[in-house]
Automatic annotation (TrEMBL):
Residues 701-770 form the Fibronectin type III-like domain. Keywords: Glycosidase, Hydrolase. This is Glycosyl hydrolase family 3, C-terminal domain-containing protein. One of its GO terms (molecular function) is beta-glucosidase activity. Pfam families: Fn3-like, Glyco_hydro_3, Glyco_hydro_3_C.
Length: 782
């Protein structure tokens, strides 16, 4: 009897246990996120946990049947049946590296269908039904076919307008989320202080405060206030950290940097976006004082998580875990590199191979613990629950085709472009031009090349979607104005130069608009390494690609390539009024153009509406307001030349000052600065001044506030940007501008690396650029 009773009790307890397990608390939206995570984690095998840490490339994961149908590829089904994974990266990416074109890639509606089909398999055909996270490249628009293309980072930085950048990022988030993705890679928070580096175009410039303010705006635009609203995505700022100062300008190489410089400048933007609540961050390829960034436990755990309170998850960059063993030789195998990376705080392996192939054996050998794996899994699962993917894993396939790249978004792209174009010279007020001018010669390799004005990380484009400079000029002028065009030369290649034709059309025109510069346009002949960076090839008897910038295209000089300098000189020799426009991915040599042109502009890579934006400025429909986010050097021998180095002794050959300084940019009107007030109220510094428009045009001015700590126990720069405001002032009117400086604005890292404000005198400098200071004052901290 006792044995029978004992058996009944055991059967009862087993039944109850099975019922409790079958309840699947992780699927109950009424439970707390922590309860759901704990329940799901308890059900996962070790292989399933490791799978959640893997984010392989995604563009091979679908199979396009026709323009209306896309289904999961066999490779996707095999991988998910073997071990479901955490998500995919760049599933919708289209470019020469992925070999996705306008014909074999996905349209907007089909993109949403494709991701829904992959998501449906994960949710409905795997054991636990854990939804996938889809991550996409979104630095200047979602890198997918049919989306809005905005200016690249330097163009965004030149706007000096955080509100505009937040609005832009909100559009990028909407376009990305409507297609079914959840994570947007961007913004780029690297400081561009090594201008030979191939990725300068992706940055907001050289200054940490400008980068931080625009970076926070970008993150806020992407993330919004509600991750479940179907309109926002998780932001992934990159690259953590000090990626923008590689030795020799070589992408991914060492950053030789002291701890104080690292924390004062290069980490500042990341600290600000962490404070703003960013949910994912990406590591970088480089090492920092010998420690690979993807294995930097001090930065990834002690600083990012403990000191800054970051509560999201950390991505490796593509292949950067393997690079710990390969490039840096800091681990004896990829297995040891994977263990180092996981223990350092890298949750997600972009590419997926380092973790998927090595963590099981690393666990068996004691290189990592189950706790290490669980912590990373929890960080990833939390974001899936917070976005509501367990309840709403799919998107409406109709909305993408209705709302992506609509007229409002295109108009915004034009606004960002024109606010990001910088007028550098305007001799005798040659600009703005009259729209009824008799004839215009439009010349140059970047005058009518759609891809050269879009920058790296751009999907293939329909020609009708892009407005080149030639298009924009034709759109703007009077119907009676004659517009002549010739290319003149290529960016790099010299086999098809026709400068004489350019001279001929210049001679018969009233004004010449010459568009030169560089290119980050990838082509299908270019070779790429596994990380997606381009490789430089020198094939004999083959026309040379325009590409001289973009990931992998580091430079040893900043000179214009090919026959462009010759083209500038020959056109200048005609004596015709010459306007030169640079479309470029980094500050290129402008000495010749600056000397010979009557007007000079930098448009960076201005995006799909770049041609209209340029025309708006050329013909006075918009008063230029862009300001340089990076200094323009006279030669590569000046590097580094960023403004906060202060005034240096001149070289034997030339001045040490840049050709055009940080913060510089002209307007069609003039502004007067007056009435400086500096008040210290309990060590909160309030600064006020008046900006008057004394010219003949309405216009926007970027009021820049710099400080100097006059005596400090450690070195501090002689001039440091601390705040700025972009204001619109009508002609004949004035605006009062107020700044408030807090502890954080005045603090430094002392000799013990403590963040402190030291007592003493500080100087206030307010001006229109870093070398054009109009108002000066002082205050004292007791």
């Amino acid at each position: 009897m006792n044995k029978l009773l004992h058996l009944i009790i055991i059967l009862f307890l087993c039944t109850v246990s099975r019922n409790l397990l079958s309840q699947e608390l992780y699927k109950d939206p009424d439970r707390t996120t922590d309860e759901r995570i704990a329940d799901l984690l308890s059900r996962m095998t070790t292989e399933e946990k490791i799978g959640q840490l893997c984010f392989p490339t995604g563009w091979e994961m679908y199979r396009k049947i026709d323009d209306h149908t896309a289904v999961p590829a066999e490779s996707f089904i095999e991988r998910m049946q073997k071990t479901p994974i955490g998500g995919f990266w760049a599933t919708l990416r289209a470019d020469p590296w992925t070999q996705k074109t306008l014909s074999n890639g996905l349209n907007l509606k089909l993109s949403a269908k494709a991701l829904n089909s992959l998501q449906r398999f994960a949710v409905e055909e795997t054991r636990l039904g854990i939804p996938l996270l889809f991550a996409e490249e979104c630095m200047h628009g979602h890198m997918a076919i049919g989306t809005t293309v905005f200016p690249t980072g330097l163009g965004q930085g030149s706007t000096w307008n955080p509100q505009l950048i937040q609005e832009m990022a909100g559009v990028i988030a909407l376009e990305t989320r409507l297609q079914g993705a959840h994570i947007a890679y961007g913004p780029i928070l690297d400081l561009a202080r090594e201008l030979r580096w191939s990725r300068v175009e992706e940055t907001f410039g050289e200054d940490p405060v400008l980068t931080a303010k625009l970076g926070v705006a970008f993150v806020n635009g992407l993330q919004g206030n509600d991750f479940k609203d179907g309109r926002h995505v998780y932001s992934t700022p990159k690259h953590f950290a000090a990626y923008g100062i590689p030795s020799g300008g070589h992408n991914g190489q060492q950053a030789f940097i002291g701890e104080r410089e690292l924390f004062s400048n290069h980490l500042l933007p990341f600290g600000k976006v962490a404070e703003a609540g960013v949910k994912t961050i990406m590591t970088s390829y480089n090492s920092i004082d010998g420690i690979p960034a993807t294995a930097h436990k001090y930065l990834l755990k002690d600083i990012l998580r403990v000191e800054w309170g970051f509560d999201g998850f950390v991505f490796s960059d593509l292949g950067s875990i393997e690079g710990i063993a390969g490039t840096h030789r800091a681990a004896k195998s990829v297995k040891h590199a994977a263990a180092l990376s996981l223990k350092a705080g890298v949750d997600a392996d972009l590419g997926g191979n380092a973790y998927s192939k090595n963590l099981i054996s690393a666990l068996d050998e004691g290189l990592v613990s189950m706790s290490d794996i669980d912590n990373a899994v929890v960080n990833i699962l939390r974001l899936k629950f917070e976005m509501g993917l367990f309840e709403n894993p799919y998107v409406d396939t109709i909305k993408a085709s209705q709302k992506v790249r609509n007229e409002k978004h295109i108009k915004l792209s034009r606004e960002v472009a024109r606010q990001g174009i910088v007028l550098l010279k305007n001799c005798n007020n040659i600009l703005p031009l009259k729209k009824d001018i008799g004839s215009i010669a439009v010349i140059g390799p970047n005058a009518d090349n759609i891809y050269n004005q879009l920058g790296d990380y751009t999907a293939p484009q329909e020609r009708s979607n892009i407005v080149t400079v030639l298009d924009g000029i034709k759109n703007a002028v009077n119907e009676k104005t004659s517009v002549y065009y010739t290319k003149g030369c290529d960016i790099r290649d010299t086999t098809e130069t026709n400068i004489q034709e350019a001279v001929d059309i210049a001679n018969k025109s009233d004004v010449v608009i010459l568009v030169v510069g560089g290119s980050s346009a990838r082509d299908f002949k270019t070779e790429y390494i596994e990380t997606g960076a381009a490789t430089i090839t020198g094939a004999v008897n083959e026309k040379i690609s325009d590409m001289e910038s973009g990931e992998g295209f580091d430079r040893s000089s900043l000179d214009l390539l090919g026959d462009q300098e010759k083209l500038i000189s020959e056109i200048a020799n005609t004596g015709k009024p010459l306007i030169v426009i640079y479309i470029q991915g980094r500050p290129l040599n402008m000495n010749n153009a600056s000397e010979k042109a009557a007007a000079l502009l930098s448009a960076w890579y201005p995006g799909q509406e770049g041609g209209n934006a340029v025309a708006d400025i050329l013909f006075g429909d918009y008063n230029p307001s862009g300001r340089l986010p990076v200094s323009v050097p006279r030669s590569v021998g000046q590097l580094p030349v960023y403004y906060s180095l202060g005034r240096q002794a001149d070289y034997v050959e030339e001045s040490s000052s840049p050709l055009y300084p940080f913060g510089y940019g002209l307007s069609y009107t003039n502004f007067e600065y007056s009435d400086l007030e500096v008040n210290n109220e309990n060590n909160i510094i309030k600064v006020r001044c008046t900006i008057s428009n004394i010219g003949n045009f309405d216009g926007e001015e970027v009021v820049q506030l710099y400080i100097r700590d006059n005596i400090s126990t450690v070195y501090t720069p002689p001039i440091q940007l601390k705040d700025f405001k972009k204001i619109n002032v009508k002609k004949g009117e004035y605006e009062t501008v107020e700044f408030i400086l807090s502890f954080d604005d005045l603090a430094l890292y002392d000799s013990n690396m403590m963040r402190v404000v030291e007592p003493g005198e500080f100087s206030i400098m307010i001006g229109s650029s870093s070398n054009s200071i109009h108002l000066k004052g002082n205050f004292t901290i007791d």
